[in-house]
Amino acid sequence: MPYSIPKGLPREHVLGSLADLDAGTDHPFGAPTGYELIHEGKCYPPKAVVGLAFRHLRGTVHMPEDFSGGEAPGQANYVFRELGFTIEKKGMSVPSEHGEKPAERGQPWSSGEVDLIVADYFLMLRAELAGEPYSKAEHNRSLQPLLDGRSKSSVEFKHQNISAVLVGLGMPYIDGYKPARNYQRAVLPQAVEDYLIRHLDFFDSLADGAILRPVVAPRIVERSVEDIFEERPDRIIVPSSDGKPWLSRKGKKIDFARRDAMNRQLGQLGEEFALEVEKKRLLVFGRDDLAAKVEWVAVTCGDGVGFDVLSFDEGNETERFIEVKTTGLGKHFPFYVTANEVRCSEDCPEKFRLYRVFDFSREPRVFVVGGSLSRECQLEAVEYRASV
Q1: Same domain (yes/no): 308, 182
Q2: Deepest in the core among 12, 297, 317, 327, taking most CB within 10 A?
Q3: Phi-psi sector, 41: left (phi>0), alpha (psi -120 to 50), beta
Q4: Total domain count for the chain?
């Protein structure tokens, strides 16, 4: 049975492990299968880095069967991110600053091309939010002949650009198109906003559907803990408040992040999900005693404590304060936190964990933000309590 990585692994010993791998040191670990640690332009197998780093710390290699390379707290990817290292999916390429991948960079998209791909994107988004089947590949093939020699990958990347614009506006986006923010800022945002102005009722019939407003708690019995936890986004995108809607008269009909925050049923379902995940995580580590003590604090003590679930570290048994934020949308979608939750995270950063539960109505997963929220997230003041 794999266990959590022991506490106390310092960054300097990880750097020593990287030097060992550069020098060709033998180790009992295989090649990475899912993720790589990226440092100074080089790629390293995360589990091998952990194993060799413990040789610097304790004099012996931490063996492959002794720990997991997953995203859950205490596993390799999570520990590396806590130490400030970059973990990426194996073979992942990085887009250029011009908004195209290097091999496909060409002329900027014309306004006509942008209008076509924005309309195509919203056709797919409507189907996704309605729970209807559609084929991204077929949409791509149908769109290419209408564009100026754009390749399949160029079209996909532009769809990712549109996702970024929508997330910046606080709107739902297509889950399969990860937001890529290097886009034509003078053309694409305006095209997206123009489409929404022409289709003011686009979200009206979708807002209360199963995707945007989940009403059933998912089951986790047949899922492994490693499948539930994912890496956190490189950067959590929040809606910009730089505009002046009082001048443009372009208001937002539906604030979807606020809907999530105000949806008490969704919040309770997400907390219940996180509660069961924590119990299962501790059971996997053989800590039946700690799993029995996991507490749904939001129910036993009421709202306003600063977190929702009391759990424990499987190694040293210290408490974990888990605040749960749930959405039916993707992992890059913004969320609301209260001043009380921020204060709790700042007062107890070593204990505080925010569990962002996403894709709740389809296949819910979790990414974890540990420590002070004011340090780990971009916080934007959107509301004040006033008195006169």
Answers
A1: no
A2: 327
A3: left
A4: 3
